[in-house]
Amino acid sequence: MSGEEAPTQQREEPEQQVKKAEEPKPEPESPAAVKPEEKMEEEEEKALSSRALVLTGYGGYEKIKLQVKTMKAPQLRSGEVLVRVKACGLNFAELLGKQGLYELLPAPPVIMGMEGSGVVEAAAEDVKDRKVGDRVIAMNRCEMWQELVVVPAKRTYLMPEEMSFEEAAALPVNYMTAYMMLFEMANLRPGKSVLIHMAAGGVGIAATQLCQTVQDVTVFGTASASKHETISQGGVTHPIDYRTKDYVTEIRKISPNGVDIVLDPLGGSDTQKGFSLLKPLGMLIAFGAANCVTGQKKNLLAMAKTWYHQLSLNTLKLMQSNKAISGFHLGYITDEELFDRTVLKLLELYRQGKIKPRIDSCYHFEEVAEAMKRMHERQNIGKVILLPEPKKSEEKPKSNADAAENVEKNQAVAGEKKDEAVEEVKAEKD
After folding, report:
1. Largest CB tally within 10 Å, which of 99, 156, 268, 381?
2. pLDDT at residue number 117
């Protein structure tokens, strides 16, 4: 400012003060004025949308609802990571949980799912061995059936580069169950024989593949006749149609002395049959009660029948028979070292090409009822996978110009095609 201009400015000062009082404060230049707007924009950017499958009550397929929730970015606690889930595993435990028969699942409403795979989107400051962008296998007691999930970093494992998200979601529960039963409990060795029930299911195929990693293991597998060719190619030595033949009689024809190991996911009278098939020093491992699940809803008669025919033993009978019976439940494994050692061993076997999850089918969250029905009716050969991403409409945008405009339309069309057993609910913002 020059010295000549100064007096003029001083004379105009009172007038300027009046004008300043009348005029609003400048918005663009004032950091204080911009700050609230920037803050709102930041909050909007942090808002996340996540689709989830929620068990709203015990009963049929209609009790599982697809919900879409808009939420704030989660505040990660020590040792946690945020994972965007790409694929989830469906297990028999979820069929039990839907009926209120899985004791480890919290009471409804609850998001189900114990395993999945995806990409790390955020990590707590103290997490050093995981970073944003890592492709991981993730496990949790529940809540894996959603697009965004917070899990302990120690329950995530880096995926091999060649592994797909679907394979990664199929690996943890089934293969860990099979591995621990065969090698930690039954001590599978060369020359032994194993009876695998439901040999075309997730655990059945995992157990069959793991048996192939040991020399001269004979595998008897029960499955419907239509699945025999597939399970034979996968390593089952003697497939048996449990629907038309008595598997005890069929096994005795081939191996009069019985088998060394029985993996029993059935319960009831089948446990008794399995125990009778054991050779001296053999072991039966009970790891399920599939015979209890006969319909969509809890069947008290089926449960009573299963438990009425359940094997009952005392120590004297065990000593006289020179046989062993054991139980296995992955959900109650608390040994962190055993947990990690097993997963890392399985990932190494995958890299070596000795095991490979077989994917039966993939269903979007909208189709969860169809997925559960397929498993319930034992139609699957291998793992049934759930995909969090929305099912795309069959109609494609006619041009690139219309693409952005049609995204919402496509999602709406996909929503109209959902199964009646599933509904999408827009939750309020937190």
Report:
1. 156
2. 98
In a domain, 145, yes or no: yes
Check pLDDT > 70 for residue 230.
yes
Structural domain containing residue 146: 48-167
Instruction: Map 3-61 to HEC letters.
Output: CCHHHHHHHHHHHHHHHHHHCCCCCCCCHHHHHHHHHHHHHHHHCEEEEEEEECCCCCH
Whether 193 and 255 have beta carbons less than 8 Å apart is answered as yes
Does residue 318 share a domain with residue 185? yes
SS3 call for 256: coil
N-terminal to C-terminal alpha carbon distance within the chain: 54
CA 255 to the chain's CA centroid: 38
In a domain, 76, yes or no: yes
State percent of the chain over pLDDT 90. Answer: 67
Whether the CA torsion 147, 169, 345, 196 is positive or negative: it is positive
> Does the pLDDT value for residue 324 go beyond 50?
yes
- Model pTM? 0.79
Query: DSSP per residue over 57-86, as a string?
Result: SSSSGGGEEEEEEEEPPP---TTEEEEEEE
- Are residues 139 and 232 located together in one domain of the fold? no
Positions of E strands within 232-340: 238-240, 259-264, 278-286, 324-327
pLDDT tens by residue, 36-71: 555 545 544 567 889 999 999 999 999 999 999 887
**How far is Cα 122 from Cα 70, in angstroms, rounded to an integer?**
18
CA distance 350 to 171: 10
